[in-house]
């Protein structure tokens, strides 16, 4: 038997300064927060309310909305009101670029309704004395007692800073490659902006940092360096992650490594949705990443074998899918009705090889008959054989047993 400390686990969480975003704590040892972003036109009040509600219902603990023009800024207080009327208090974050200072100054109700402002230091300057845009946003945030996220992004990196670092690198006796200099520019863009915000009177417990990059290795290097040099609360995300499995794999690889190293207080999985696709997928992936790594529990996990030549029919895949969908759909209700239900483990297995064993490890599990096996599906509850299901109603009956189990 291995001694306990031979089992590798995640590194201790990097100690950061806690920031309250509305009623949600970020950093300072708080649970890692899942957030997402709408893709509606924010000026479309009803459409944005509907999507924020869907993301919240799926488990997004904060939602960011674009505030890109006058109409969007004017819509924000109405969106906040509409959500309150539906009983949704999920913190709303305004995503500002270029003219955020102007929109916030001219729409005080928008500044008040939002719970956090996202500033992109790459397109809101502060080094030029004539350029007061950054200072204006910080002043409005301070006046309204709101936190900010200073979000550097590889795709809109501060060009003035990058050019300065490139010039310094060229003149140095040991020049680094351009990629290393760009990584350094990302780190400095975030940290210099945060330091400037503090000079302008913003306390550290109002500042969250991010430094998003689209390549996994660059992202890991940049975030490692940001946390080595600071203790600001950290928002993690791989930018422009991409569509489908590529976006999920790249985000999970990058964020998984950083989370394992104790880095990250809130995460967003930035997926490009399929046309007409479900925006809530990014919330599901974020939750599953945190849950499968053992950092948080959100929904009961369904363990299912991959299926193989021993699987007799599609019943197995259909059952696994329908149990998973059913659990996810019911979770918003179950969460209040059955405290702790998210700890539940369900197994849906395809044959006798691993079926009974895996089902016994779950709270409730079923082993469907494989090729050559008798047409019977034993169900296991709390490690013991409970019942055997047969015939065309196996799926329905098993679902009912899951509900019974949760009820009890
Ligand atoms: Fe194949 Fe059976 Fe293993 Fe499932 S449990 S992958 S059906 S051998």
Automatic annotation (TrEMBL):
**Cofactor(s) essential for the protein:** [4Fe-4S] cluster
Asked if Signal is a keyword of the record, the answer is no
Q: Which reaction does it catalyse?
A: (2E)-4-hydroxy-3-methylbut-2-enyl diphosphate + oxidized [flavodoxin] + H2O + 2 H(+) = 2-C-methyl-D-erythritol 2,4-cyclic diphosphate + reduced [flavodoxin]
Query: What would be an example GO MF term here?
Result: 4 iron, 4 sulfur cluster binding
- EC number(s) stated in the UniProt entry for this protein: 1.17.7.3
Provide the taxonomic classification: Bacteria, Pseudomonadati, Pseudomonadota, Alphaproteobacteria, Hyphomicrobiales
Sorted alphabetically, which InterPro entries does this protein's record hold? Dihydropteroate_synth-like_sf, IspG_bac, IspG_bac-typ, IspG_C, IspG_TIM, NO2/SO3_Rdtase_4Fe4S_sf
- Name it: 4-hydroxy-3-methylbut-2-en-1-yl diphosphate synthase (flavodoxin)
Q: Where is the IspG TIM-barrel domain?
A: 16-286
Which residues does the annotation say bind [4Fe-4S] cluster? Answer: 305, 308, 351, 358
Record's function text: Converts 2C-methyl-D-erythritol 2,4-cyclodiphosphate (ME-2,4cPP) into 1-hydroxy-2-methyl-2-(E)-butenyl 4-diphosphate.
Q: Which family does it belong to?
A: Belongs to the IspG family.
User: Cofactor stoichiometry and binding?
Assistant: Binds 1 [4Fe-4S] cluster.
Q: Name one GO biological process term.
A: isopentenyl diphosphate biosynthetic process, methylerythritol 4-phosphate pathway
Which pathway or pathways does this protein act in?
Isoprenoid biosynthesis; isopentenyl diphosphate biosynthesis via DXP pathway; isopentenyl diphosphate from 1-deoxy-D-xylulose 5-phosphate: step 5/6
Arranged from A to Z, the UniProt key words for this protein are: 4Fe-4S, Iron, Iron-sulfur, Isoprene biosynthesis, Metal-binding, Oxidoreductase
């Amino acid at each position: 038997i291995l001694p306990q400390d031979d089992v590798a686990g995640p590194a201790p969480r990097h100690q950061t300064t806690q920031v309250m975003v509305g009623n949600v704590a970020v950093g300072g040892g708080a649970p890692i927060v899942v957030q997402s972003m709408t893709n509606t036109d924010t000026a479309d009040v009803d459409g944005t309310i509907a999507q924020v509600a869907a993301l919240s219902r799926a488990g997004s603990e904060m939602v960011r909305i674009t505030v890109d023009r006058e109409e969007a800024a004017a819509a924000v207080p109405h969106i906040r009101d509409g959500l309150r009327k539906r009983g949704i208090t999920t913190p709303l974050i305004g995503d500002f670029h270029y003219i955020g200072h102007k929109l916030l100054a001219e729409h005080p109700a928008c500044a008040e309704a939002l719970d956090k402002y996202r500033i992109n230091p790459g397109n809101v300057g502060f080094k030029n004395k004539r350029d007061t845009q950054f200072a204006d946003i910080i002043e409005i945030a301070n006046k309204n007692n709101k936190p900010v996220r200073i979000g550097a992004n590889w795709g809109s990196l501060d060009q003035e800073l990058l050019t300065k670092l490139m010039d310094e690198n060229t003149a140095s006796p040991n020049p680094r490659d351009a990629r290393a200099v760009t990584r350094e520019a990302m780190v400095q863009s975030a940290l210099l902006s945060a330091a400037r915000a503090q000079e302008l009177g913003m306390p550290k417990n109002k500042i969250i940092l991010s430094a998003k990059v689209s390549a996994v290795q660059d992202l890991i290097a940049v975030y490692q360096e940001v946390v080595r040099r600071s203790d600001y609360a950290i928002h993690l995300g791989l930018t422009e992650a991409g569509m489908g499995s590529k976006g999920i794999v790249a985000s999970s690889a990058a964020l998984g490594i950083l989370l394992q190293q104790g880095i990250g207080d809130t995460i967003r999985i930035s997926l490009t949705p399929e046309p007409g696709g479900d925006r809530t997928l990014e919330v599901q992936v974020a939750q599953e990443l945190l849950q499968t790594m053992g950092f948080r529990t959100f929904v009961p996990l369904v363990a299912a074998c991959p299926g193989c030549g021993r699987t007799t029919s599609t019943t197995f895949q259909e059952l696994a899918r329908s149990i998973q969908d059913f659990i996810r759909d019911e979770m918003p209700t179950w969460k209040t009705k059955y405290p702790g239900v998210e700890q539940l483990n369900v197994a849906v297995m395809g044959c006798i090889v691993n079926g009974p064993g895996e089902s016994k490890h779950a709270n409730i599990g079923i082993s469907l008959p494989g090729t050559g096996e008798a047409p019977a599906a034993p169900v296991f509850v709390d490690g013991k054989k409970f019942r055997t299901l047969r015939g065309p109603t196996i799926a329905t009956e098993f679902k009912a047993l899951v509900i019974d189990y949760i009820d009890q």
